[in-house]
Amino acid sequence: MLAGCAALSVSACGPSLPDYRYRLTVEVDTPDGVRSGSSVIEVASHISSQYSLAPGDVTTQVSGEAVAVDLPGGKTLFALLSKPGSAEGAGAYALDALIPKPWVGSNEYIANVHVLAKRRDVGVLPEKDWPMLVTFGDTDAPASVRSVDPLNLADGFGPAVKIRRITVQVTQDPVTRGLRRRLPWLGIHPEPALGDRPGLQDFSISATLRHGDFARLPTK
Q1: Which structural domain range is residue 144 located in?
Q2: Of 21, 94, 98, 208, which residue is most buried, by most CB within 10 angstroms?
């Protein structure tokens, strides 16, 4: 469930792709008013040369952090760099919000990224493309992570708590850093699971979620 690299096949002499950053903002309605959190995420792309092992492939590398939203009662909702059932995650949130039509090929993907990098308007992320949402029983204990139903936040956070909207805006702001102050166990490597040495047959959320679902270091 890591939000990392994806590969697409294009012509080896295709155009270069611009890096872009976007602010992902999660707004939540609560009895105490709207609570929100945001994170600036960068997507860097590269087209492999004709001399590489996979000439013409496009790789996308995400750097940034999950969004944290502080809610009443001292609880925190996290919107991850990954989304349920998809390898795209944060590498596609901006495209999903601002260029919602599905891309069907590599050349169209490249064209969309060039358009996206110049956008400055705010796009609303469709519900089907929302990030995976989680919370912790204890933020000092990574294995206490549990998934959150995006359509039923009241179950874990109390009556009248619900997502208002999730938005995306391309920005020049720096990539967000600081999640490790909230999650002191979060390491610099994306691969480890949140659970303590999960077994091969352990498919619990703490075993399947990785540090890279919460934070990835900048590529530069």
Answers
A1: 7-216
A2: 94
The tokens 């204990």 sit on which residue? Answer: 141
Distance separating alpha carbons of residues 86 and 96, to the nearest angstrom = 13
Classify each residue of 11-42 as buried b or exposed e, where b means 16 or more C-beta atoms within 10 Å of its C-beta.
eeeeeebebbbbbbbbebebeeeebebbbbbb
Structurally, how many domains does the chain consist of? 1
Give the burial string for 167-205 (b: 16+ CB within 10 Å, else e): bbbbeeeebbeebeebbeebeeebeebbbeeeeeeeeeb
Q: Quick check: pTM over 0.85?
A: yes
95 in any annotated domain: yes
pLDDT at 2: 41
- For 155-171, the pLDDT digits (tens) are 999 999 999 999 999 99
